[in-house]
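Batch job 17 of 40 flagged for manual review because the log was empty.
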Amino acid sequence: MKKNMWNVKTPFFRPMWRRLLACVLPAIWAVVELTIGNPMFGVLFVACAGYLAHQFFIVFNPDDYTRPPDV
């Protein structure tokens, strides 16, 4: 599998609570940024939370989150 910055399909995110936390924290921070008047960072964190929610819950495949076999 090609490694890149946007790849979140790692064994670390297999537990549900880690995936949920990774989606909720940017969403909370987006609300903070929007509340204090920083719309650019608010939208950035909303996009981050949306991307993670899409990857972790909409197109989630448990087989993608297993450790590759040792070669």
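Reviewer: the log was empty due to a logging misconfiguration, but the result itself is present. The radius of gyration is 14 Å. Unflagging and moving on to job 18.
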